[in-house]
């Protein structure tokens, strides 16, 4: 049985990949819908990533879709359980005429800032020759999709879908029989089924039955059909089980219907009518709501404002310290802009981490990203005041030290930054949200408040009763903190910092004043004022918020020093470069 009577085109949904036919072949029927749909925390940023790094183009009037050489790649915001590997859809593939140049370009970009992670073969190479004699290599997008890059000069563009199967031959025969693809051999070596210009390959899964694709980075693959009722009847007659009957999905962009069926090897497969234009998911994302109503903070048994609980800064991740110049007159971002900004911040700091490390990844964080434009609220322009002459000197020294660490072969751990050495991020930096470990837990007792930050497991014990200041002045990484209550606000003043983990070049004279205010049952406002006349011509104040997450979030141990292979590799790499330089000098 073959669904040739319904005229089908393979559609790939990487949490929907819809793959269209080749130009001129069944093209008119599916011209408005060929796409691959991938789970993403911020679809517009995913469109940008695929456009920037894989040569795709944005699709007009759809900020969740990129046109990848005639194949639409659509990004869907839904929770995900991880990458494509180990599932029935192992990876998708793109082809380039000069893969050596393309891979060199991706490698030069690096992981930070773009989220392009390369998979290296044994020996460290990013490319090698496949059985068919062509070059190939692998990368991962930031959302867990494994992507094979191949050199195929005759078929440049979106190239293939590669399945994991318990019986590859049976799986390929199923797709050929059910959907009418052409059985063929690529490069005289890779047997597959071809749908227009797009191949479907299958390899034996190494460990029994592959995991389901549902809920993973590539959630399902699909086919476009002209007559979904006739196609459904033929599939049922062949014994195919339906997960969902043909129906117009909620928020569908057209009246075309979609059905889900079970394909071999736990592959979820969508079948859609011609004219299906995807689903508008903009209403699914949570929206950040500012707190405007006054709030009476609950009290502790000893009658102090109760700030205790587990809080996270995930919603505030992505807020820049200073107001961007192009947002000088903007009061707040739109929810879409805020989601895209937070995703850019995530991509800019993943350093090759899998999505499981990212607290702000879709599905892990229930809080919508903050629409706040910048942290600094005073001065009103949202910019840090001008530096003094000493501040300029200290800033230049700081830049020099960072450059020396980054570009030179450091002699020992003492020359690395306190953050790299797992000592501290310094104040107020340790309070700022990042891509992960944004937990903040507050404990209280009579006369004391303990503030524990998950990143580098730093705990600050703040007395709220006055202490004498007589005696020798001792400095430390986090200084001396003195707290007091100003109504329902905890005010913490910190002095005696050693400035070895300075804030943007701050001096030991810096005074940091922080204000913790519970502004709703589930939100905590954090303000910080930096006053350092040695470095800046005026003080400045910033603010952002934390959200309570007692039910889901738990601060985990940040065992940074245990098995710290990062420091070992930094120093061993430096010594290797020293040897290379010595050998070169001795030639």
Model description:
The chain is α+β, with helices and mostly antiparallel strands. 18% of the residues lie in helices and 29% in strands. The chain has 8 helices and 28 strands. The strands form 4 sheets. Strands 19, 20, 21, 22, 23, 24, 25, 26, 27 and 28 form a 10-stranded antiparallel beta sheet that branches. Strands 6, 7, 8, 9, 10, 11, 12, 13 and 14 form a 9-stranded mixed beta sheet that branches. Strands 1-15-18-17-16 form a 5-stranded mixed beta sheet, covered by helices on one side. Strand 9 and strand 10 form a beta hairpin. About 3% of the residues have low confidence.
Structure, briefly:
This protein has 587 residues and is α+β, with helices and mostly antiparallel strands.
The Cα radius of gyration reads: 28 Å
Largest sheet geometry: 10 strands, antiparallel
Strand content: 25-35%
Number of continuous helical runs: 8
Instruction: Give me the CATH fold name of the domain at 3-97 and 160-273.
Output: 2,3-Dihydroxybiphenyl 1,2-Dioxygenase, domain 1
Structural class by SSE content: alpha+beta
Provide the helix percentage: 10-25%
Overall morphology: globular
CATH superfamily of the domain at 3-97 and 160-273: 2,3-Dihydroxybiphenyl 1,2-Dioxygenase, domain 1
Return the average pLDDT rounded to an integer.
Answer: 86
How is the topology of this model organized?
Blueprint: E1 9-11, H1 27-30, E2 35-39, H2 43-54, E3 57-59, E4 62-68, E5 71-76, E6 89-96, H3 99-109, E7 117-119, E8 128-129, E9 135-140, E10 146-151, E11 157-165, H4 168-179, E12 182-186, E13 190-195, E14 198-204, E15 221-225, H5 228-237, E16 242-247, E17 258-263, E18 267-273, E19 309-312, H6 335-347, E20 376-378, H7 389-407, E21 439-445, E22 448-453, E23 458-463, E24 480-486, E25 489-495, E26 511-520, E27 523-531, E28 540-548, H8 565-586
Parallel strand pairs: 2-5, 6-10, 11-14, 15-18
Antiparallel strand pairs: 1-15, 3-4, 4-5, 6-11, 7-9, 8-9, 9-10, 12-13, 13-14, 16-17, 17-18, 19-21, 19-28, 20-28, 21-22, 22-23, 24-25, 25-26, 26-27, 27-28
